[in-house]
Design a protein that fits this description.
This protein is mainly α and 117 residues long. The chain has seven helices and no strands. Helix 4 packs across helix 5 and helix 4 packs parallel to helix 7.
């Protein structure tokens, strides 16, 4: 583990490493990603395309905002709780869970380039 202010989540994503970096349990990781916690109990399911894609989407969003937020754990707090006016007050967590991660990435790119929320 490096001592960087925030870490990059790179494939292949190890679920235990992601949950450890964020300071949450695997159950909380699953809930935050919108995946049934029981899915992570079986390695074959936990490494399935849906689960890995959803965790990767979440990790990518967290990585994008970690610098703005002040670190991985602060990014997670933002992800879970900050209402985004451009999405009708929904949180990033809600947006990713509903399968709209690409719209959220576009929004974050817009903000990073100096656009308004």
């Amino acid at each position: 583990m490096t001592h960087a202010r925030h870490m990059r989540f790179e494939p292949p994503l190890e679920l235990e490493a992601v949950s450890e970096r964020l300071g949450i349990s695997k159950r909380e990781l699953a809930e935050t990603a919108g995946i049934p916690a029981s899915t992570l109990h079986r390695k074959s399911r936990a490494q399935g395309p849906f689960v890995t894609a959803r965790i990767a989407e979440m990790a990518e969003i967290l990585h994008r905002i970690a610098g703005w937020a002040g670190g991985d754990r602060q990014a997670l707090a933002w992800y879970r709780a900050e209402p985004l006016p451009a999405f009708g007050g929904r949180t990033a967590e809600s947006i990713v869970k509903s399968g709209k991660a690409s719209a959220l990435r576009d929004y974050l790119d817009h903000i990073a380039l100096g656009g308004f929320a």
